[in-house]
Write a structure and sequence with these properties.
Aminopeptidase, alpha+beta, 207 residues, 7 helices
């Protein structure tokens, strides 16, 4: 595992991505891949390495954004990225986003979300973290309930793709619920083992 790891889970760690990460990995290609961008707003215009480097550098300059690369602990391969954005320290709230561009296990996305909200609530002192996603990702949203998120509503006709409109699922978690859940798990929102986390994910996906 890289010595620069900032947040560490069971299978992954998060750290600030470098230019080398973007250049040597498939980073910019994720946003040109129709299978990766199927249920988000990317994939409309082609993305080059230069475009993505400029975008990442801009994110680093934004005081209201915290972007982390998602890395495999065993191989140090970059799998994707996760961000807290629109961070509002007055109202103590933030949005959250995730891209997993490489083939990865079930737990990777949940771990990335879990690590970021833990940091958001414990170190940034946020009270609410929320976002929305495509209705076709309802199973992933169901999995997010494992770490305290709740479905809060529906954004009607939020996405237009191939001539069809799709709704968005609005989901969020507040600090009070997060800390209760973390305390019940002996201080770890992601459970004390990968096995327990994976079991919870499988159960959620089948419910």
């Amino acid at each position: 595992m890289n010595d620069d790891a900032f947040l560490t889970g069971h299978k992954i760690y998060l750290r600030t991505p470098t230019d080398e990460d973007v250049i040597r990995a498939n980073w910019h290609r994720w946003y040109n891949d129709a299978s990766v961008t199927k249920y988000n707003n990317h994939g409309v215009f082609p993305v080059t390495i230069e475009h993505e480097l400029n975008h990442i550098h801009q994110q680093f300059q934004n005081a209201d954004t915290l972007m982390m690369g998602v890395f495999d602990q065993e191989t140090d391969k970059v799998l994707g990225n996760v961000s807290l954005y629109n961070i509002d320290l007055i109202n103590r709230r933030s949005s959250i986003s995730l891209t997993i561009g490489e083939t990865a296990g079930l737990s990777v996305g949940i771990e990335a979300f879990g690590l970021m909200i833990d940091h958001g609530f414990c170190r940034l002192n946020l009270n609410r973290i929320a976002d929305g996603t495509h209705e076709k990702l309802a199973t992933f949203v169901k999995m997010l309930e494992i770490i305290g998120f709740q479905v809060e509503g529906c954004g009607r006709q939020q996405f237009l793709r191939d001539g069809n409109y799709y709704d968005s699922i609005q989901f969020g978690v507040i600090a009070e619920d997060f800390f209760k859940l973390r305390e019940a798990r002996a201080g770890s929102i992601l459970f004390d083992s990968e096995k327990k986390l994976n079991s919870a994910i499988v159960a959620a996906s089948r419910s």
